[in-house]
Amino acid sequence: MSLENYSEEFYMNILGYLGNRQLAPAPDLEKAVEECLDEVEKVSQFRYQWQQFDSLLPVLEKPAYREFLAGTSGYVLGVMTLGAAVDARSRAYSARDLARMCVFDAVANAYLEYCADRYEECFGENRTYRFCPGYRGTSVEDLKELFRILKPEKIGVSLLDSCLMVPAKSMLGIVGLGKQARKDCDTCALGGQCQYRREGRTCYGN
Amino acid sequence: MLRKLGRKVLIFDGGFGSELQRLGLPDTCPEDLNITHPDAVQQIHRSYACADFITTNTFGLNRKKYRGNYPIADVVRAAVANARAAGKTVMYDIGPTGALMQPLGPMSFDEAYETYSEVASLASDLADGFILETFTDLYELKAAVLAVREHTDKPVFATMTFDESGRTLTGSSPEIMVNTLEGLGVDALGVNCSLGPKALLPIVKRILACANVPVLVQPNRGLPKVINGKTVYDLPFEEFESCTEEFVKEGVAVIGGCCGTTPELIERLTRYRGTEIKRHTHRLTRVNSASRMVQISGVRICGERLNPTGKKALKEAILSEQYEYLVGEAVRQEDAGAEILDLNVGIPRIDEAAVMKKAVLQVQEYCSLPLQIDSSSVQALETGCRYYNGIPLINSVNGEDEVMDKIFPIAKKYGAVVVGLTLDRGGVPQTAEERVAIAKRIIARAKQYGIPKNRILIDTLTLAVSAQQKAAAETLKALRMVRALGVGTVLGVSNVSFGLPDRPLLNRTFLCAAMDAGLNMPIMNPLDAEMKNAVYAYRVLSGEDTDAKDYIEKLQTQGEQAPVQAAETSVTLTDAVIKGLRPAVPSIVRGELATREPMEIVNGVLLPALQKVGELFEAGKIFLPQLIASAETVKDAFGILSAKMEKNGEEKGVVVMATVRGDVHDIGKNICKVVMESYGYRVYDLGKDVSEEEVVGAWKKYKPDCIGLSALMTTTVSSMESTINALREAGCTTPVMVGGAVLTQQIADEIGADYYSKDALGCVSVMGRIMEGKKTV
Q1: Cis amide prior to B103 (ω within 30 degrees)
Q2: Domain A3-187 CATH (choose: 3.30.1360.110, 3.40.120.10, 2.40.240.50, 3.40.109.40)
Q3: Does residue B327 sit at the A interface (CB-CB below 8 Å)?
Q4: Is a pLDDT exceeding 60 seen at residue B629?
Q5: Once rounded to an integer, what is the mean pLDDT over residues B589-598?
């Protein structure tokens, strides 16, 4: 799909990953984004593995998770990934054209978010945004227990001791069901002290 | 039972997890149930007694994954004893570790091999065979197959999972899996888990279309649904059965089930037991990497440039273990159109096997082409084949029994395609007939080792026409005769022109004559466009390139690139840097060199231009890729200029860089590296997930002016701290600079770093301060 089939926000996200959202990119950079998007779409093997829960898992017994899930009827715990081929392509670029790799990486980041958002539509309209361990008041260490529960090896995602997920373009998120909630700066780890806000924007749309 | 394998349809058992659920047993650590609930486990095995093969309850039993309460040896014994209760052939089950292999994840090939060796040796005397199943990474599966093969002679079955796109999770196709596993000598191969039976059918057909060994299929009972937090498989039995019928018709030898399948379902499949299997034999010459398969028929270009003979820079890179240079040569050849790469690291007095291992690992990380492992050292050949993620070529054997007896066992074990040189102790025979006689000897000897003709290529040897003019005709005659033996052919084309003017012309002409005589794999320089184009043109004339599609596309691309490069020669070097026009650099720099000294160009043009790009970036006027493109452009220009400069003084300083242990993200570090290089620093890049010891070792070896450490996560900052501590304990006083997404000046201070840099340009300014400080001391 060409870039014009995606939302403005998707494109802004890519530019954000490239270090700037306020600048109109030069035509060759825009072309590089288009080409990388085409390639990311082709090599991605998007997968989303999830389980639904009604009660709070012990590992989520923390004020931040509790607050996030307050008023929900349950929640989905999911791991999502673009797969190993995206990492391989990115590595291949790193030996050829680092600038291209940088664009490819930014596009892949935005594309993973896009695919995940699209997939989560199957959980119905009454759902929250995706809350990821590591957000304010939570720790990436929580991933260890959550990985033990979800066992996402089948979709090819594993967690290193350092809590990094591999393949690199992978996420673990929690989506609350039965209520709507959008991201806001109060629950963010950066608490509004970020480049988006400095530019008078937010990462979740204004 | 195993005697019938491949002749009559046999039945495997079905899902284990769903049966545990049915009995109300906990599934937190199913392997431990072998000891805690042997009766229940035996009951499940007995419920599958209708099958011919029973799988032990040991899927996750390996030291990387198992988190149970008993010694692994005890669980292995109990599991096999439990499976025996069904009274059928017991296949010891081995699943993946769940850890990802390097370079994607942290697990090395050796670690994977050791992990599987442990269970293979424990089970070798107990089980009747092994089933390696649900693998998603062919490289991990290769480690597992080798581990089992090296501990037992019992049959090995291997299956992988595929997704809807027909690839494994690490991007291998069914054909690549088949070529690799058959090469490694498995007794049956196939697909399990993944998808429901219907969605698997196209994948199974592709497997059957190229496999010679029996094919095994164990689908899930459809796609899983999650209902109330529980995974449910509910494909109707009838549908599963009708798909199975299709599998059997197509030639599948062993059928069974995976997730969600039950004893009732497997019982229904037993009606296919004993069906005669009809299959065709496939005799293709194929080599492959993890993601690319090359069939050696028609003409295939093998890149010759990864060979230090006569290449000073490559020799130096190998001696100083700067694999980056090797990787650069590899990707340049791949991008230029090579289809296979010859890899030779032979330099006197080095540990060639150790260097070959590193070279193979590095090249396959960045380059997707199949490799030809080229060495006169048997040990280096074996090491190269072992660590290669795929099926390589081996270059080479010759007609000497002693050589063949050493190398054919390696080729057999790793499934390699072997190049046989038509020479022996007596040297290169003069006549074609004598060379063909040697080729016949090689083919016959290979057969004794179980290596069929399709895994042999014969090199009829190119000699310099300047020395022996008649030799070229004999080489071509021998080619024709060898092809008539039913094997493929190889020639190192460029040897023909030694000692004569305009070598490319002779090479090209000889290449055309050789292709016409039946040459399948010229080993040549793919960067020579005319030579490469001669291959493309020949493929049209021979009919290999249908409708000249490939020829038109390739020539068109070349035509599009040429004017761009020509137009760019009109831009200045400053413009080229600011716009990041890398292709324009060589001609502009050469032009500049006509009027100026190299250092003048560096100080007067390159650095000011780069400075300007840096300012634009700082001011938010350009994007990160533009900064990187400029830095790479300057680096290219440096490469050309440094060759012209005196050896002293051009290097501003030396930096060792690493992403610390536990961290596999290295984009930021790579950006810093290229920007520092563009400013004239020599950077030794240790890569990612680098241990404390390796950093200390590099400090001792390279005596850098600064050590740069990168970490992306809060959790890996601790590795950064331990690396700094290790350096200090070793007596290192070299300044340490740190950076990465989560770092701040405060954290840098806390962990004992000397400098913090927030980005790539920051690194340059830190280096400036360090080098300035050195000058004033």
Answers
A1: yes
A2: 3.40.109.40
A3: yes
A4: yes
A5: 87
